[in-house]
Design goal:
Layout: E1 5-11, E2 14-22, E3 47-48, E4 53-54, E5 62-67, E6 70-74, H1 76-83, E7 90-97, E8 107-115, H2 119-132, E9 135-142, E10 145-154, E11 157-163, H3 186-199, H4 211-225, H5 244-254
Parallel strand pairs: 1-7
Antiparallel strand pairs: 1-2, 2-8, 3-4, 5-6, 7-9, 8-11, 9-10, 10-11
């Protein structure tokens, strides 16, 4: 597994040499832009619209837009000087908290941490986190950005997950058109909970797959080998249901476990007529 960063974890006076490895990978299918006529990959050039000429990498500087069309230019040396104090290769744990206190919206990217020597100290932190049922909140400099991170145990490995700073998470109160109250009946909520209960299961990651990506790969392979790919279109269920209860009931009927018969409803005894008395 590729090592993308080397440094150390520090908490208190304990120092643990570690390596970082990306724990996830992007499986998106990436297409190149080709010239339709000859299938040559398109080359993208950096052109200055004012000077009308191509700009080389050495002629490009960093600028921050402070107003429309007005920039403050920042030199690379100035940025390096600012980073100098915080770029020592260390993951400094500054707090320990319960994982449940962090909302998932804050999580960003995951990294496995392996010991780079110092296996005993690595094991000490792993054991301490497990027994205390806590996670470490740390800071680390990755790719010119100071990241906030969580260090926890995952399958006997120390895992670091970068998390967003509070000002990077947009305010939920700014989302438009959110109803202020729930105008639903008791029957509707009971039926919705019944549907949730019917779809509730144990989380097994292996049962989920990216169907669209697999179909694209199948299409690419068919084109590569000269085969004709026929896609069967599934008939979408009717959606013309304005009644919420009808939609909920239809969903429950579709998700009922197969093979289980519903108990027959008991019929009420027929009322006796005057002739049968």
């Amino acid at each position: 597994m590729h090592t993308m960063w080397k440094g150390s974890i520090s908490f208190g006076l304990v120092n643990i040499p570690v390596k970082l490895h990306a724990a996830t990978e992007d499986k998106d299918i990436k297409f190149r832009s080709l010239h339709e006529k000859c299938h040559t990959p398109i080359k993208y050039e950096k052109i200055c619209p004012s000077c009308k000429q191509e700009v080389e990498a050495k002629e490009i500087v960093k600028g921050y837009e402070v107003a429309k069309g007005k920039f403050v230019v920042v030199e690379e040396d100035e940025l390096k000087e600012l980073k100098a104090g915080s770029e020592e290769k260390a993951v400094e744990i500054i707090d320990f908290i319960k994982l449940q206190e962090i909302d998932p919206i804050y999580f960003n990217k995951s990294y496995y941490m392996s010991p780079d020597g110092g296996g005993k100290a690595y094991g000490l932190l792993r054991k301490a986190l497990l027994e205390s049922e806590k996670v470490g909140i740390a800071k680390i400099m990755i790719r010119s950005k100071e990241q906030l991170a969580v260090i926890r145990v995952f399958e006997n490995i120390l895992l670091m997950e970068t998390i967003h700073y509070p000002d990077e998470v947009r305010k939920a109160s700014e989302v438009p058109n959110i109803p202020s109250s729930d105008h639903v009946s008791k029957k509707e909520i009971d039926t919705a909970i019944m549907l949730i209960d019917q779809l509730t299961t144990t989380f097994r990651p292996d049962q989920y797959r990216d169907d669209y990506r697999l179909k694209v790969l199948e299409l690419i392979e068919a084109k590569r080998t000269g085969k004709e790919l026929v896609t069967v279109k599934e008939k979408a269920p009717a959606t013309e249901m304005n009644d919420l209860m009808a939609a909920l009931q239809a969903s429950i009927d579709r998700t009922k476990p197969k093979g289980k018969k519903q108990p027959a409803k008991k019929r009420k005894p027929a009322a006796k007529t005057a002739e049968t008395k």
